[in-house]
């Protein structure tokens, strides 16, 4: 590809509405552009990465014996009514009507559609086991789309569904898919961990999530420093040895918060101008024996304009009285930013206010305590169940009984489930068994967040100059940067020659043939994160040499033109 015929679309400035580094770099490197909240257009460089990730995922699925299909995004409501999820799923399920007023959903996942397909197509035990997958756009009307393609409303997922006669057979395929997932993340060059997980709204018994380790991760994962034990924090809590704790009523309650007007009132009382740059506060509260509730602990996240904030659907977490200090609560309920999701009141606070002023602000809010009573929520604003995490504390013994517990932040990039017969029973998906009797199939399902992986990979691979792609998923493997080509007699010929030779050898090359200063070209190639740059300059050509630069190590090697092609290919 020649830069002159391409859309590089790089940006010098960091966009102000991007909170995490991957979102910032995806915008700056010209990978994505926002259409509307949680909806993104993939520009050519972004799409190239997305397709490379997809190809690795597809390859490993094929190797694991899964067969590719493609199901519609638009799904008839009656299938969802049959499984019971039309009611259960909540507002994340985007519901639409066609011109005949018939209800449909835009698929957030495809258990219903695949079960419907298989119950029609598969009639005998002889056709089992069967493992079908697709790579398809998913639609989820996320309550808080954020971090760019990390949590978007339309995203690309690889989802596979397996069908079996017995749970033993399901367990075998599950193990095979677990291995395939490890292969995928190994090939992507990511630092990841499979962890035991809850099955949530998808259902089933056994489940694992795959997390890419990153400080910006929304999830917390707990693992032992002395064994293979690793679980997501909710599961770790469920398995944790029981420590003494207050009764549930006192321990953790969630409440709806005041309307936006009340928040604006509070801000006014505290002289915070409506146009201030403010952060979202995740608030933890306490309750005394008399049941009076107040706010205590704060976790700041994100920049917002005060007048953008809407607080009608946010909730509060109340912790017991003895956890009066913020650190205590943060430690005790595992409330590092994001560790229990954005459960909490959203309060606008001036970023530069001291802790004392902040405390004052909260005290002021407490006087208005009545405003914080309301609907009881058992789910946080992302739809996750609110979990009491006080048993999962770093340095607790590990629930596995070996070593102590460590906690790290992770980005969920994959999730696999042994579903059992949840869907096949509800939707009557059965086959004729060996004994001539009808037998309900047992199922597994296996998801990979293909587009989320792109962002997660950047979270793990970047420096102050930009992205540093693992070669397997880089938009280009190598950039040719001819310095001041337009002023030179020799450089254009050498550059063209190398471009042709490298392409002929199957290298994915970007030839920067713009009339730009070398500095501009280097900056762009570093920002985009191309693993290798071949620099062609007058001085080195005097010795028939070109320079090969490694993006990750910064190392530069002089090579003869012939060596260059051989070394790279
Ligand atoms: P999360 O906990 O982050 O909301 P999930 O548990 O709801 O994810 P699954 O139903 O397990 O997601 O879907 C499989 C995979 O799809 C996830 O592991 C994740 O990688 C990806 N995914 C889910 N929601 C989104 C989203 N809104 N944007 C991008 N990728 C997503
Ligand atoms: Mg979700
Ligand atoms: Mg999840
Ligand atoms: Mg999940």
Automatic annotation (TrEMBL):
Q: Which organism is it from?
A: Pseudoalteromonas xiamenensis
Q: Which Gene3D superfamilies does the entry link to?
A: Anticodon-binding domain, Bira Bifunctional Protein, Domain 2
What gene, per UniProt, encodes this protein?
A: proS
For this protein, the record's InterPro entries field holds: aa-tRNA-synt_IIb, aa-tRNA-synth_II, aa-tRNA-synth_II/BPL/LPL, Anticodon-bd, Anticodon-bd_dom_sf, Pro-tRNA-ligase_IIa, Pro-tRNA-synth_IIa_bac-type, Pro-tRNA-Synthase_IIa_type1
Record's PANTHER family?
MITOCHONDRIAL RIBOSOME PROTEIN L39/PROLYL-TRNA LIGASE FAMILY MEMBER (PTHR42753), PROLINE--TRNA LIGASE (PTHR42753:SF2)
Q: Which GO terms describe its molecular function?
A: aminoacyl-tRNA deacylase activity; ATP binding; proline-tRNA ligase activity
One Pfam match, by short name? tRNA-synt_2b
Protein's name according to its UniProt entry: Proline--tRNA ligase
- Reactions it catalyzes: tRNA(Pro) + L-proline + ATP = L-prolyl-tRNA(Pro) + AMP + diphosphate
Gene Ontology cellular component annotations, sorted alphabetically: cytosol
List, alphabetically, the NCBIfam families matched: PRK09194.1, proS_fam_II
Enzyme Commission number: 6.1.1.15
Do the record's keywords include Nucleotide-binding? yes
Tagged with keyword Nucleotide-binding: yes
Q: What is known of its domains?
A: Consists of three domains: the N-terminal catalytic domain, the editing domain and the C-terminal anticodon-binding domain.
UniProt-listed HAMAP family? Pro_tRNA_synth_type1 (MF_01569)
Q: Which UniProt keywords apply?
A: Aminoacyl-tRNA synthetase, ATP-binding, Cytoplasm, Ligase, Nucleotide-binding, Protein biosynthesis
Q: What does the record list as GO biological process?
A: prolyl-tRNA aminoacylation
Q: Where in the cell is it found?
A: Cytoplasm
